[in-house]
Amino acid sequence: MIALKADQIKGNWATLLSVWNDDSLDICRVKEEIDTLIDMEVDGIYSNGTTGEFHCQSEAEFDMISECLAEKCNKTGMPFQIGVSHMSAQISLERLKRVVHLAPSAVQVILPDWFPVTDEEAAVFLKRMAEASEGIGLVLYNPPHAKRVLSPEEVGYLSGEVPRLVGLKTAGGDKSWYDSMRKHIPNLSVFVPGHLLASGIQEGASGSYSNAACLNPAAAQRWTDQMQYDMDSSLELEGRLRQFMDNYIVPFITEKGFCNGACDRFMAVVGGWADVGSRMRWPYRSIPETEAPRVRAEARRLVPEFFK
Predict the structure, then answer these.
(1) DSSP conformation letters of 36-94
(2) For residues 229 and 245, what is the distance between their CA atoms, to the nearest angstrom?
(3) Which of the residues 46, 141, 178, 209 is marked catalytic?
(4) Where are the annotated coiled coils located (predicted)?
């Protein structure tokens, strides 16, 4: 694939979920999942994010997933990004070096995540990654649980220091956050949570590495396309998606202590679009699939568009 510029990274990007058979990677089911996402014609696919469990993969497993995704996407012309993130800067750099030849559209990185980095250390890290990327753009993944959650102004500083930085994956924020985004990082592709995409697009965001796509990638794509010609209806659907998330998904985190990745994986079970299962890799807990019928019934009631 051709490396994408910031203004070319947009829309609904679906996550590639890891699939575990007991405690081993089931690469056959991962390949089937990639084929399904390609058939659904999403705007792009990315691997090795939080729900892809980059933090739990061996280096051999990372290489296997990355190579499978690249082979299928390069063959079909599907844009794809590879997450080279790791808590260790050294391992992240080595992952990046190993995937450059796969020609991803961009790569996703997190900041080193044991000690919180300073602005200077973050810039030094990203500069080294950019040097190794051989022209492939960097997308900074900065989730709410990162040791260092950056403001738009701080991301703007890094963007000025590292021209190869083309995108930001973030939780977004309120109106003041978007005002700051437009002021400090107008040249980056900014991706916000999937269930907040319509209001995010309205405020100037570029797209989403989408939790809504975990529920149903094809439906998330139809909704994203709808935003181009019917924003009012798209915002109305967003309101129902927010209600579903707040009432039936978020409590698994706030009340029962499951991690975010377990919730995204559970939504794929609720949506039933791929054979990925609810299993998280040890030591993380998985949401029992016995919860799925109850949550699926509420999802069908609130967002029937995601079950067509």
Answers:
(1) HHHHTT-SEEEESSTTTTGGG--HHHHHHHHHHHHHHHHHHT--EEEE---SSHHHHHH
(2) 25
(3) 141
(4) none
- DSSP E strand stretches across the chain: 11-15, 20-21, 24-25, 44-47, 80-83, 106-109, 138-141, 165-169, 189-191, 207-209
Tokens 């989730």 locate to 143
Out of 10, 169, 209, 248, which one is annotated catalytic? 169
- The token pair at 210 is 């989408």
**Extents of the domains making up the chain:** 6-229
pTM (whole model) above 0.85: yes
* Residue 151 tokens, joined: 């403001």
**Mean pLDDT, the chain, integer:** 97
CATH architecture of 6-229: Alpha-Beta Barrel (3.20)
Binding residues for pyruvate: 51
Q: What pLDDT band is residue 113 in, cutting at 50, 70 and 90?
A: very high
